[in-house]
Design a protein that fits this description.
Layout lengths: L1 E6 L4 H12 L3 E6 L17 E5 L3 H13 L3 E3 L2 H7 L2 H10 L7 E4 L2 H11 L3 E4 L10 E3 L2 H12 L9 E5 L6 E8 L2 E9 L14 E4 L4 H13 L5 E9 L2 E8 L5 H7 L3 H14 L1
Parallel strand pairs: 1-2, 1-3, 3-4
Antiparallel strand pairs: 5-8, 6-7, 6-8, 9-10, 9-12, 10-11, 12-13
Amino acid sequence: MELGLVYSQISFETKELMRAATEEGILLAKINDNELQLSLGENAAHFPDCILMRSISHSHSLYVSEYMEYLQKTAINSAATIRICGDKALCSMHLAKAGIPSPKTMLSFSSQMAQSAMDSLSYPCVIKPVIGSWGRLVHKINDSDAARAVLEYKEHLSNPMHKVYYTQQYIEKPGRDIRAFVCGNEIAAAIYRTSENGDFRTNHHLGSCVSPCPISNELSEICSKVSSLFGGEQILGIDLIESPEGLLVVEVNSTPEFAGCQKASGIDIAKKIVQHAAKMVKN
C-alpha cells in the first residue's frame, strides 16, 4: 500500500506521520507542495491513490485536493472540507445550518456595518479574519472606541479579505478551551489549552499550556455531529469553549497541528491518522 503526504515544510507533524507510516509498513510518497507542477489534461501528475494533506497554505491545500479529485483519487481532507474549514464564515454558516451550537456570529462587508454588528453583539466581542490561523489578527474588542480603531486599521490592509468583517460574541470561559482531534467519526484525543499570560486566545502556537481533557458524552456527541457534517471520514481539529449553556464550537480546522495534543494525551495521533487513511484506501 502507498499513501502520499503533501507538505510545505518538515514539521513535527510531518516527521511523526513519516514515522507512523514506516511503523505501519506503509510506503509513503513525500510530496513538497512548493515543488509541484500540476498539468491539466494530458500528462497529468502522478499521485498515489490517497494523499494526506499537510500543506500550511490554505490555497495550496485547496487546489491540490481539488486536483486529486480531478484525478478521481482521494485527498484527506477533501476539497470541500478544506474550503469550508479554511473560511471561518463558511464554517459558521454550515455549523448554524446543522444546528450545532456556536457563539453568535455576524458577517459584514463595510466598516460601518461591522461597527453596528459589534454594537449589537455588545462588548466585549471578538473580530477575526475569515481566513487565517494561529490566532493571528484575532482581537477582543472591549468597547466602541476600540472597535473603531481596529476597523480603521483593517480598512488600510491591502488584502481584500480583510474587508469581510467576521464578528463574534465573546464567551466568558474558564481561561481555557478544548481541542478535540477527530479521525473519521472518532475522537482520537482531546486536550485543554489554557492561557498562562492573560491572553484570551488559547492557541498552542501562542504558548498555551496543554493538559488532557476527558471525553464526556457531551463532547463526543457534538464532535460526532461536526464530523458527520463533513461526511464522517475527515481529520479535524475541533475547537470548543465551555459556556454556561454547554459546549460551543468555535472553529473547525482541516489541517490541525497535533504536537500539543499528542504530548498531553500520550496518544499516538500520527499513527491513528495513518491507520485511518489506510482504512479509507482499503474501503
